[in-house]
What we know:
Blueprint: E1 6-7, E2 14-15, E3 19-21, H1 26-38, E4 43-45, E5 61-63, E6 71-74, E7 80-84, H2 89-96, E8 101-102, H3 114-120, E9 136-142, E10 148-152, H4 157-164, E11 172-179, E12 181-182, E13 185-194, H5 195-200, H6 202-207, E14 211-216, E15 222-230, H7 242-266, H8 271-281, E16 285-290, H9 291-295, E17 303-311, H10 315-325, E18 337-342, E19 357-365, H11 371-382, E20 387-388, H12 398-402, H13 408-418, H14 427-433
Parallel strand pairs: 3-5, 4-5
Antiparallel strand pairs: 1-2, 6-7, 7-11, 8-12, 9-10, 9-11, 13-15, 13-16, 14-15, 14-18, 17-19, 17-20, 18-19
Helix pairs in contact: 4-13, 7-8, 10-11
Amino acid sequence: MxxxxxxxxxxxxxxxxxxxxxxxxxxxxxxxxxxxxRDGLTVRAIGAGHSFTAVAATDGVALDLSGWQGIVxxxxxxxxxTVRAGTTLAQLNAALDPLGLALANLxxxxxxxxxxxxxxxxxxTGAKLGGLTTxxxxxxxxxxxxxxVSCSSGERPELFQATRLGLGALxxxxxxxxxxxxxxxxxxxxxPERIEDLIERFDELADTNDxxxxxxxxxxxxxxxxxxxxxxxxAAPKPMPRARQFLEYEVxxxxxxxxxxxxxxxxxxTVPGSQRLIDKLMSVRSYSDVSHRVFVTPRNVRFVESEYAxxxxxLPAVLRELRTRIPKLADQPAFPLEIRVAAADDIWLSTASxxxxxxxxxxxxxxxxxxxxxxxxxxxxAEVDGRPHWGKMHSxxxxxxxxxxxxxxxxxxxxxETDPAGRFGNAYLSRVLGPIG
Length: 437
């Protein structure tokens, strides 16, 4: 493929690979890796570019896996589905529908490839549920010598532990086997509520809803609260009428918010008043639909984002601190904070590893100053051992991250054993994982 520049969705990272390759099966993936080795080049699979970091950037060989998509096999009895790495979450959701299966949990964006979403720790929300990586049952990946290997909890278990959330640092994932669940319908209830009440009742709300989150503009009195709860098997969906869906999600959440953000960018003093206006525009929405149609919402307005995971018990205090300090910033954020939860898991580099977790994501409209805001956020969450989302903007390095992940050195050891020459490295991995060996 001809040389061209790679750019991520947010425009926060670019790279010009020495060459591109578009393998269509594991043998071609292996051949591309072996050719890179002969030429002394590194290799990165680029996914869909929805990471806000340079995790996929390379000046070596960029692997475009968009020709390696689809379901390989599905077992409706066990719910296990093996999918090719270049498949997007949107494509996977559509393919699972006729099988009567679904992913147990999802985030609100489905443009990512399966491999990219798993490699960076994409998660949804749910106090009793983990992120996408907890649904992995087996993986196949192509190693630095071009060979394809399989791993699971019973086969090469340490490689499996590392690769489940591996940042693409151990090899190129070719297929993933996921534990799916019977398709289900979610009842969605979305409404504005006072931010003070949400902070006080956070544990109750997280524990009494299957999927709970809220979005809060720092100058607003209210937050938009989303409660998504599973209906009994066989329940018929009652989706929002298309006209209202278009009004709520396309016009209000994208066109209107995007227009207001552009006004804020041109005239920063309008931010507080704009957010008070948005407070008044929030409406009550109740409907039900197939799970992925509730989880996923359109995101057409571009922004930059940082997200940290913190011990769930620390969430109220951190939010109170942010409420006090954000209004004092010289550059005010035009976008909301997003609050979600997840159950503890045992994955080495998972942001929820070993602890029940709350997530705070902060955003700024593309083109507006964000550095002071993001630095403030990092300084506050550092006090409670916050862990950054691997695919969102942060400034931490390997020395700091090693103190926040009990199994960090185990991951580094498996990486050194699997890719001693750093064939799958790049500048981002050098910063967050440190040198090999």
